[in-house]
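Residues determine shape. We examine one folded chain.
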Amino acid sequence: MAGLPKTFSHLGSLRRRFETLLAGARKMSSPAEALTHRPSRLQEIANFGANPGNLRMLAYVPDRLPHTPALVVALHGCTQTADGYDHGTGWSTLAGRLGFVVIYPEQQASNNPHNCFSWFLPGDTARERGEALSIREMVERAIVNFGVDRTRVFVTGLSAGGAMASVMLATYPEVFAGGAIIAGLPYGCASSVEEAFEAMFQERAASARALGDRVRNASRHQGPWPKISVWHGSADPLVKPSNAEDIVRQWANVHGLSGGPSHEEIVNGHIRRIWKDASGNTIIEVVSITGMTHGVPLATGKGDESCGALGPFFLNVGIASTNHIARFWGLDIEAKAWSSAARKASPAIGASSREIQVITSSGRASLEPTVAHVESNETHSRRRRLDANAVIAAAFKAAGLSPPENTKQQPGTVLPGPIIEAALKAAGLVRR
């Protein structure tokens, strides 16, 4: 009993330090963009299954998807919401571009006053229990609802969400092909609030074998194991950067990789180290963001690499972690394969359930892969409003010909199918 006051005093000191650092990290971030009037892109899915962790499930499903899309589970950090995390990271924007589904588990204030996932509580971090089971149930519902490819399920998160991603990778390794942990912690480093704060603020001395055993003991899985991407700022005051090294050591041991990295390089001014297996496949990467505090690394602007939006814990450091992680998982390769398959499909004029080639004003063909059951009304209406004369003129121009006089009709006229098809054939844009 004599030690209880000292314990409570220590815990109170750690909690105050956490709240001070959390508030400081928010102030050091860019001002938040106004989200109040921004329509959410996410839909809530209620009654998704067993929910012992009392979490919410939100999802983003693009209008156009391949037959069996990939799935990304995105876990927000403390003080954040699913919608805010989506806006900051840009995962839904990338999902719409590449064609995959994203689900966003969301913590509730009734579980944690700071909206942190309970990545340190035994009742929430064990297989078939608590928040871990709730998230697993969300994954299963998404797989069934949206026809997800079970071999391409991934999980990522920031801070407490990153630590919860570690939990999911350890407790359900057979479910996930890969994970990305941003400013997070290794699995099993804490089992109480006090230990959680200490793991965040202090460097630990656990051996690689001990770290690996925590993952191996979390399930009966014998492999293969998920590939891991780790991101951390070198100036993070909230979660010690040494945690990133512990995550790497944990998963290198699980994968049976010893020694230092196989390769080291500079990417956009930041150090990236990778570990490869005996077959030369990259299994683990860690990107250390020079001078970054606590948050998600972004590259904002108008280029192809820009992704996400600045705000508290979303930091412009010249490298877009969302894009990079998607490439690390191979989501861009899958998207290219999908697009290539769509281009090889036989186009059919007016067939809404097939791949349709539409002539742009520049005379070039742009491919719009569409599937009847997911096509939006907006997309369908846009096709119906397509100016037939513009189609004909662009097609003949692309072929180096002049459109015949009998095709010059009033704007908005719907021309007969054979005339349109002849024009497209003349341009070499459909098969003869």
